[in-house]
Amino acid sequence: MENTSRAVKKHLKRSGGGGGGGGSRFSGGRKQYESEKEEGEEVGGEECDQEAWETLSQSFRDVQTVLDQNRTLIQQVNENHQSKLPNNIARNVDLIREINGNISKVVGMYSDLSGNFSGIVHQRRSGGREQ
């Protein structure tokens, strides 16, 4: 995840002109998140779009949270399976359904992330004009 975040940040810095009007807003129903501010990093005298970076970073953190939850659920499934107790094995059905639901959630989150990233790139390439 960290390498992906670094690559996204690097692309944002490389792709965009600084002078465009206003902050980036994304459609698609994604919440705008406020998170810790990083020091203003510059490349070629242009600052990275802080709001865009924070939104993408929050998306990666949200995905990681769901993946961590699945890791815990998979461990529980393994423990239940190893116990060979009928009630524990029966409980695995619900746990596996929850894992499957989380995988669907992650797919949706990555789809939103891709749309947000495409929107950022499109906006930067058009000079920050709203379209």
UniProtKB/TrEMBL annotation:
Its main location: nucleus. Keywords: Biological rhythms, Nucleus. PANTHER family: PROTEIN EARLY FLOWERING 4 (PTHR33469:SF5), PROTEIN ELF4-LIKE 4 (PTHR33469). GO terms for biological process: entrainment of circadian clock; positive regulation of circadian rhythm; rhythmic process. The keyword Chloroplast does not apply. Residues 47-127 form the Protein EARLY FLOWERING domain. Residues 1-51 are annotated as: Disordered. Belongs to the EARLY FLOWERING 4 family. GO terms for cellular component: nucleus. Residues 36-51 have a biased composition (Acidic residues). This is ELF4-like protein. The keyword Nucleus applies. Pfam families: Elf4 (PF07011). Coiled coil: none annotated. It comes from the Eukaryota. It is found in: Nucleus. Residues 15-26 have a biased composition (Gly residues).
